[in-house]
Write a structure and sequence with these properties.
mainly alpha; 57% helix; 0% strand; elongated
Length: 152
């Protein structure tokens, strides 16, 4: 009985290798990206690209293990959900209220340690934010929200 279960699991693992989710290989920097509607300093942009863009833009740099399912399917789902929640490549298409709300959420998620996701930083150590980076991001969000509020 155990042998049949193991063979069944092995067959399932082999079969799911043929399922290939669509890759997120578009352009991260687009005419609608974040930089076209808010001011972003180079240090903040570097932090965003290192810690956020893989899941929150139109371009993902995939690690080798993304080609092995079920991990690849799990990653594709996370990227899709991340882009639905916030897409830096499409940020300029958001209306003023949504931009403000997304900026507010960025600060909240960073401050609470929810973003970048601990599962992501476990594998991508360079994405782990230092206290200085967290402070810089939160201060940037405050400044941009204030600037947005003053715009007509």
């Amino acid at each position: 009985m155990k042998r049949k279960i193991l063979i069944g699991l092995l067959v399932v693992l082999v079969v799911i290798q043929f399922i290939r989710p669509e890759k997120n290989n578009g352009q991260a920097d687009t005419p609608q990206d974040l930089t076209h509607s808010v001011q972003v300093s180079q240090p903040v942009m570097t932090t965003l690209k290192t810690a956020c863009y893989n899941c929150h833009s139109n371009h993902t740099d995939y690690p080798w293990y993304s080609n092995v399912n079920p991990v690849g399917l799990w990653l594709a789902n996370h990227i899709e959900e991340g882009k639905e929640e916030l897409n830096f490549s499409e940020f300029s298409t958001y209306d003023k209220k949504r931009k403000d709300h997304k900026l507010e959420e960025i600060a909240e998620e960073v401050e609470e340690g929810h973003m970048p996701m601990p599962a992501y930083t476990l594998v991508h150590q360079d994405a782990k934010l230092s206290e200085a980076q967290k402070t810089e991001l939160i201060e940037w969000v405050k400044a941009e929200r204030k600037r947005l509020a003053q715009m007509n």
